[in-house]
Amino acid sequence: MKVSTKGRYALRIMLDLALHNSGELVPLKDIAGRQDITLKYMEQIISPLAKAGYVLSLRGSSGGYRLARHPSEYTCGDILRVVEGPLAPTVCLSSGDFVDCPRADECPTISFWEGLRDVINKYVDSVTLEDLMNEQLSAQNDYVI
Amino acid sequence: MKVSTKGRYALRIMLDLALHNSGELVPLKDIAGRQDITLKYMEQIISPLAKAGYVLSLRGSSGGYRLARHPSEYTCGDILRVVEGPLAPTVCLSSGDFVDCPRADECPTISFWEGLRDVINKYVDSVTLEDLMNEQLSAQNDYVI
DNA sequence: AATATTCCTAGCACAAAACTATGAATATAG
DNA sequence: CTATATTCATAGTTTTGTGCTAGGAATATT
Asked: pTM (2 decimals)?
């Protein structure tokens, strides 16, 4: 029941972009330095986020990435699902309809797992990138005072 | 974010025991037949459940397992945690206190993950083995009628 | 004594996760 | 217009975990 590093890193990358959201492009090298994630691994993680239109990119010198929307318009669930796939606790609930399992009809645990899937998704969709930003900013204030 | 087969099978094994809870001992071989799980793999899965006192066992001919308590006294969370370990979405939340992560203090996502851990555990602890039994039994009735 | 079970431990095959590596495409800067 | 800095695409590698298989000891019943 663990979220992979891709999911966790994706959240940190998006949060980093949100905190440096001046309108200018932020090169991955900068984020890599701040977040202790290798450049090459980050490229792989941000790639699906770019394809999903969550971040905008420009190549070449002084290129980089920036958010496509306001931080309040991304839920953590949005971001996690893009890099992790469906947030479902079983394979039979991952592929839209329960194609795989021959026991699906009579399965006494399926509705339990559906319930779990639903509370997970409801929760991760209740927190936005902006919420994480505020968390971060208030923690910094605590530190300064 | 997947539950392993151990967790899923553990639930099915416990449910099978609950549905055959006549007071007699049920040998794993019987459960293996009904549940399409190999005997040897089931042995491994039920072992921690026996050690946790969730099932009682007797060796030898006409030995087997039975539930230690009434089905209503097990939550799905209880069972899953015994075989899967802590139901936490990150390693840093799995080992009691966040020992591992040097970033824990300033981590802006930790409370998000704590929230996720909490909703997961709250949900899995809200469903009991008896609930699964009722699900199963009413499904069977549907089928018969 | 034979048999049927749980219990214990080790190993193995496969898949997935977590990176690393190489280099092409492309935009800017000087 | 060349050097440089970036994204983009793809493939390879290493490590870890999952999902089982195997063999046999211990123990209770028949």
From this structure: 0.94
